[in-house]
Amino acid sequence: MSQVKQKADSLLTEAYEKYNTLLLKFCYTKLTENKNNADDIVQEALLVYYKRLLKGEDFEKPLAFLYQTAANLCKNANKKATKQAMRTVPLDELTDVAAKEDNSRASELDYDEIKEKLLEKLSEEELRLYYLKYVEDKSLKEIAEMMDISPNAVAKRTQRLRSVIKQLVEPTLAIYERGHSYGYQG
Question: Which of 58, 4, 48 is CA-nearest to residue 23?
C-alpha cells in the first residue's frame, strides 16, 4: 500500500472519529426537507475529503473543509427536495398554501416549529454561526479556527447574529402571545 493511501486512510479514520457527530448535527440543522439525509451527506462529505487526500492534498483545518463541503451538499439536497416537492403538491393544496402567510400560523405552532421557521430565515453563514455558538456551545476561539477568521470577527458576527435573531423573534413572539392571551386557537 502506498504511503499516500495509508496517510489518507489514517486521516479519514481520524476525521470520522472526531467529527462524525458534529457533522451529523450540523447537517440536521441545515436540511430543511428530508433530515434523514444527514447521515448520507456526512458520508459523502467524508468521501470528498478522502478522495482529495488520495490526490495528495493536505488540509490544515480538516473540520472547516468538512463543514463547508457538508454545507454545500445540504444546500444541493434542499434545492433538490424543494424542486421535487413542488412537482408533487396537488394544485388545490398549492393555492391554499399560497394564500396563507407564515406569521398568521405563528399562534398555532409549538416552540420547535417556531424556532425552525425563524432559523430558515437566517443566511447559511448566520445559521452555521448560530449552530456552532448556541447548539455546539463552542468558544470564540474554536469557532474562529473552524471558520478561518479571527476571534474578534467571530465576536462581531455573533453580536450581529443576535440582532438579526431579535428582529426575527420580536414580531413572531408578539403574534404568538397575542393569539394565546386572547384564547385564539387558529
Answer: 48
If you average pLDDT over every residue of the chain, what do you get? 78
Distance between CA atoms of 5 and 13, rounded to whole angstroms? Answer: 12
- The C-alpha angle 152, 118, 155, rounded to 5 degrees, equals 5
Q: What is the mean pLDDT of residues 34-63?
A: 89
Indicate the range of 29-33, 59-63, 66-70 predicted with least confidence. Answer: 29-33
Q: Do the beta carbons of residue 42 and residue 91 sit within 8 Å?
A: no
Helical segments of the chain, H only = 3-30, 38-54, 62-88, 91-99, 111-120, 124-130, 140-147, 151-181
Helix, strand and coil in the chain, % to nearest 5: 80, 0, 20
Neighbours of 146 (CB within 10 A): 21
Q: Which residue has the higher pLDDT, 179 or 148?
A: 148
The candidate with the shortest Cα–Cα distance to 109, out of 117, 98, 120, 101, is: 117
Question: Which whole-number Å values give the CA distances from 120 to 5, 13, 31, 32, 69, in the listed order?
Answer: 40, 33, 10, 8, 20
24 vs 175, more confident: 24
Structure-model confidence comparison of residues 89 and 30, the more confident one? 30
DSSP 56: T
